[in-house]
Design a protein that fits this description.
The protein has a single domain, classed as Rossmann fold, CATH 3.40.50.1820. Helix content is 25%, strand content 25%. It is built from seven helices and twelve strands. A ten-stranded mixed β-sheet has the order 1-2-4-3-5-6-7-10-9-8, with helices on both faces. It has a two-stranded parallel sheet with strand order 11-12. The longest helix is centred in the middle third of the chain and has 16 residues. The protein starts with 9 loop residues before the first helix and ends in a 7-residue tail after the last helix.
């Protein structure tokens, strides 16, 4: 039985720590000044900024070798835990390698002060507005396909994914949440659900101290949307891994993986503070497969 790898910080002892990571983040690369040259969409690694809410918000953008700025390209936005950075998220989850094979863009934003203003914590920034502005910018400037924009995150970043799924009004076709949940005061109203279809894949560790919070959140999500269980593919991976699938009346799908022996981690990740290489399944691969099967439905 694995122990939870996250070491709770002082803030996490005060608030529900679903959005908490391990140690203090490595400072992000300083944002370039407003005199920086204009962006030139091209394959490779890019450190960029976007001004929003009176501040320069930094993010990493990875474009695979097959990227063509003249062709609509799927976009995955990946959100780190608290406290963390976009570069730390990038190192842990291995989305760049997946993008090389499947040809999609990946953006790794830095949360102000190491976190995102999600459902439980952290901060006061308008992160829903920032994610909306970021995806709009990448659609306009980098050719991201607006029908194939996806959001994934772990812990605080997973909580933020749920908030954006509800409040960004159909911007994201699907979200992939790892060790995060749909919980907290914002989720109390019965109508706090997406107004347009947003499919969800999530991974919950049985040894995560918030496992029941996360599981209850998914039950609430499905009840409010009227989702019904469907026969799904059998869970792949090690013993102790379960999978439950549901279809919702709005056309969205829900897939919930439970990993009995995992803590507050990203299953299959090999490096990083919340990596669990022995969890028994590769979350990154499963998340992308789910995203690829769930473009935004026609209005």
């Amino acid at each position: 039985m694995r122990r939870m790898v996250a070491v709770l910080t002082g803030l996490c002892l005060i608030v529900l720590a679903a959005g908490c990571g391990a140690t203090a983040p490595t400072p992000a690369t300083p944002a370039p000044s407003s005199s920086a040259p204009p962006e030139r969409p091209a394959p490779g690694e890019h450190r960029l900024t976007l001004r929003h809410g009176g501040a320069e918000r930094g993010y990493l953008l990875y474009a695979p070798p097959g990227y063509d700025p003249g062709r609509p390209t799927p976009l995955v936005v990946a959100l780190h835990f608290y406290p963390g950075t976009g570069s730390g998220m990038r190192e842990m989850v291995g989305l760049d390698a997946k993008a090389d094979r499947e040809n999609f863009l990946v953006a790794y934003p830095d949360g102000p002060g190491g976190g995102f203003n999600a459902l439980i914590c952290c901060g006061t920034a308008d992160d829903v507005g920032f994610l909306t502005a970021l995806t709009g910018h990448l659609t306009k400037t980098w050719g991201a396909d607006p029908d194939r924009v996806y959001l994934t995150g772990i812990s605080n970043g997973g909580d933020m994914s749920f908030r954006a799924a509800v409040e960004a009004d159909g911007l994201f076709a699907a979200i992939g949440v790892v060790s995060g949940g749909y919980s907290g005061p914002r989720t109390t109203p019965e109508d706090y659900v997406p107004k347009r279809p947003v499919s969800v894949i999530t991974f919950i560790g049985g040894q995560d101290r918030y496992a029941e919070v996360f599981a209850e959140g998914m039950r609430t999500w499905q009840r409010r949307l009227g989702c019904r269980a469907t026969p799904g593919a059998p869970a792949r991976g090690a013993p102790g891994i379960g999978r439950a699938d549901a279809r919702c009346p709005d056309g969205s799908d829900v897939t919930v993986y439970t990993l009995a022996d995992m803590g507050h981690s990203w299953p299959g990740a090999r490096t990083g503070q919340l990596a669990d290489p022995d969890a028994g399944l590769p979350a990154t691969d499963l998340i992308w497969d789910f995203f690829a099967a769930h473009p935004r439905p026609a209005a």
